[in-house]
Amino acid sequence: MLGLMLTYKSGIIKLRYTSNTLGVSFDKIHINRCPMFVLTSNKDVPLYKQLYNQIKERVLSGQLCADFKLPSIRDLADELSVSRNTVEGAYLELTAEGYIYSKPRSGYFISALDQEAPLFLPHSPRKHDRLPEPPSLFKYDFHPARLDPDSFPATLWRKCFVDCLHENSRELSHYSTPQGEWGLRCSIQKYLEHSRGVICDPDQIVICAGLQHSLSVVAHVLKSNHSVVAVENPGYPLPRSVFRNHSFKIVPIPVVPSGLDVDALKASSSTIAYVTPSHQQPLGYVMPVANRLKLIEWAESIGKFVIEDDYDSELRYHGKPIPSLQGLRPDGNIIYLGTFSKILSPALRASYLVLPQSLLPIYHSLFKDYLSSVSLLEQRTLAKFMEEGHWERHVRRMRTAYKNKHNSLLGAVEHHFGTQAIVVGQGAGLHIVMQLHNTAHSEAEIIARAQQKGIRLIPFSNTYASGKPSVTSLMLGFGGMAANEIDQGIALLSRIC
Length: 497
Prior knowledge:
By secondary structure, the chain is an alpha/beta fold. The protein contains 14 helices and 18 strands.
């Protein structure tokens, strides 16, 4: 009597024959058409990328034919002794590029490719084939706007991106509306209302491609009736450049511990004021309510406007985030600006502005024939990212991570500089300002000497539209470095100073 048993596991079909008459049994193993994948520890190529490359190569070479079912994420992860996130990351990237496709509750399958098209098979590049990477000149980068290089939620973003491709692929043949996707504007409106106290409707929100673009839109809207803009001094250089390039006159207004000097603003000829009231850039001052109300009253006299830039309001490390200026007078002459660059990624070029109702007719008249400058697919990915709660969880995670780095920087300054330095602007954002009262070196000398030692510093003096700092001051960003790098960099900087 002959018995036959067939089993399947991890892409292997095993047939077991049993013969009672012969008293023997033996196995015949048949490997199906899914080839073995080999992953190695390689710092230059992540595991998910290795798996992605191997599957892609086998698809292009025909070893994996159309509609072939790949092992499940769990089975392949077990077989390769890697995490499920590794396999899922490779599958999602292959799906996004069209090499495989998924069926609900069925798994992942190989896509049908045009076999008549020429195939350019990937290969293991020789050393001289690789494009050279630009060498980093700085071991310690204290740029005030650098983010943690590992902070971007790539896996979650990729999943949202692929989901949007599947859900809305037919709509990608359309243009987005000039103000941006309605779903994204609704998500932003909800977030701003409960986290920043901003009161607005989604139709007041305009999606822009970064703060620079937001400011340019505002300049277009205002320049028919205004020509003079007041800016904080010291302050963020970008608004000065944008408004100057739109032919506005720039008036620097001194910054005091209560923020922009409102009395000096009233004495000026300005009819627009650009301010960062919740975390003054670069000194970190918070404008108290009394000054905010004075600023609002100034704006409501003879049709003046306040531009409130809330650029890093989420990064407050002590107490609750400061409510927005706009929330104090939702129907006032306040234009609110926000961005995703300081928390999520500056590479996305995603920002937004909230226009007061009084400016919407002018905006629609000027921009009715424009198309959105932000990718439709990225807008929808961001909307899904927010709708599923990933954005607020990411904000909380980044607040904790940057708080730890902020505290590491303060500890390093205290340890290595002691009483020789005073810190200004601590408690929020991605940088502090360190004032040196007993140094024989100028800012320019310190920056030049630091560069020779592999330290990058951005001149604090660049934040001044007029005048210069009364004491030698250094702007120290901490977002892009690990805690041990921060301490090493500050130790080296103390010797330079």
